[in-house]
Design a protein that fits this description.
The chain is globular. It has a single domain, classed as Rossmann fold. The protein starts with a helix and ends with a helix. The longest helix is centred in the N-terminal third of the chain and has 19 residues. Helices cover 44% and strands 20% of the residues. Helix 1 packs parallel to helix 5. Strands 3-2-1-4-5-9-8 form a 7-stranded mixed beta sheet. Strands 6-7 form a two-stranded antiparallel sheet. By secondary structure, the protein is an alpha/beta fold. The structure holds S-adenosylmethionine. S-adenosylmethionine (SAM) binds next to helix 1 and strand 2.
C-alpha cells in the first residue's frame, strides 16, 4: 500500500473510532473497569495510558501559562485539553483524523479553553508549525502508526524551542508489524539521541501489562454490546484490535518517554525561569 493510501485508511479507521468514543457507554465502561482508580479521568482517552503515566508526563513537560504545547496525534482532543487545563499552557492539536479534530474543536469551549487552543488536520511528520515554536510536544500512543519514525523525531526537534520537552507513550517492538502497518522500533532512545535529544525518562509503567490485558479482554467481551451503540463493523474492528494487542503483548513493551531538546547555553537562564 502506498504511504498516502495507508494514512488515509488509518484516518478513516480513527474517524470511525473518534466518532463513537465519546458516546459509547460500553467502551467507557471497559476503560473504567480495566484502569479502576488509575483511569485518566477527564480525558476520554483513546489510548492505553494510565492516570499515573499522564500525570508523570504532564509534570515532566514543566508547562506554565504562556507556554505552547503541541499535542501530535491529538485524537478528539481530550488528553491535550486536560494538560492545557491543568497547566495554563496554550494548545495546538494536530491529527490526521478530521473527525477527531472536529470533536476537539467542539470540546474546547465546553472546557473554557477555546481562547487558548486550536486544532488542525495534519500529519505529525510535517505539522506546518514554525521552527522552534513549541515549549513541549506531547504524543500519546501515536508513534507506532507512523511509518517513518526518524522523520517524526526530526519534526519534533524542528518545532521545539531549545530546552523544550518531548513527552510520549508508545510501544517498542522489533521489525515491521503487519497488524499496525508500519515499521516498529525496539528502542526509541538511539533514534532520539541521534537527532539531538537527551532522554531523561524511558520506562515501562509498572502496571501496563495488567491494565492493557484487562482493557483488551473487556473490549472483546463487549463487542456485542458495543454493536448496539456503533456500526457493528466498528465494534468488530475494536475487538480485532484488542485481540491483536493481546497477541502482541509478549513481544513488545509499552514505554513512557521524556526527552529534552538541546539546551543552548544562552537560553539556560531563561529556561530555568519558565517559558513565557
Ligand atoms: C490511539 S489514538 C490516540 C489519540 C490521543 N492521543 C489519545 O491519547 O486519546 C492514535 C491517534 O493518532 C492519530 N495518528 C496516527 N498517525 C498519525 C500521524 N502520522 N499524524 C497525526 N496523527 C496521527 C490517529 O488519527 C489517532 O487519532
Amino acid at each position: 500500500m502506498s504511504g498516502s493510501a495507508q494514512s488515509s485508511s488509518l484516518a478513516d479507521r480513527f474517524n470511525d473510532r473518534h466518532a463513537v468514543r465519546l458516546r459509547s457507554a460500553t467502551w467507557e465502561h471497559a476503560y473504567r473497569a480495566a484502569f479502576a482508580d488509575d483511569y485518566p479521568e477527564g480525558t476520554n482517552t483513546n489510548g492505553w495510558y494510565s492516570r499515573t503515566t499522564l500525570e508523570c508526563l504532564c509534570t515532566a513537560m514543566r508547562l506554565a501559562p504562556g507556554c505552547t504545547l503541541a499535542d501530535l496525534g491529538c485524537g478528539h482532543g481530550g488528553p491535550g485539553l486536560w494538560v492545557a487545563g491543568r497547566t495554563g499552557a496554550d494548545l495546538i492539536g494536530i491529527d490526521i483524523s478530521a473527525t477527531g479534530v472536529a470533536l476537539a474543536t467542539e470540546q474546547a469551549p465546553r472546557l473554557g479553553l477555546d481562547n487558548r487552543s486550536r486544532f488542525q488536520v495534519g500529519d505529525l511528520t510535517s505539522t506546518g508549525l514554525p521552527d522552534a515554536s513549541c515549549d513541549a510536544v506531547l504524543s500519546l500512543d501515536v508513534l507506532l502508526f507512523v511509518p517513518d519514525k526518524a522523520a517524526a523525531v526530526r519534526e519534533f526537534a524542528r518545532i521545539l524551542r531549545a530546552g523544550g520537552i518531548l513527552a510520549f507513550t508508545t510501544w517498542e517492538q522489533q521489525g515491521y508489524s503487519e497488524r499496525i502497518g508500519a515499521d516498529q522500533v525496539a528502542d526509541h532512545r538511539p533514534l532520539l539521541e541521534a537527532a539531538g535529544f537527551k532522554v531523561t525518562i524511558h520506562e515501562e509503567p509498572t502496571e501496563w501489562r495488567r491494565q492493557h490485558a484487562a482493557l483488551a479482554e473487556g473490549l472483546i467481551a463487549a463487542q456485542a454490546e458495543m454493536s448496539k451503540e456503533m456500526e457493528p463493523a466498528t465494534a468488530a474492528g475494536l475487538a480485532a484490535m484488542a485481540r491483536g494487542v493481546l497477541a502482541d503483548m509478549p513481544a513488545r513493551q509499552y514505554v513512557c518517554v521524556v526527552a529534552r531538546w538541546r539546551l543552548r547555553p544562552r537560553y539556560w537562564a531563561v529556561r530555568l525561569e519558565g517559558c513565557a
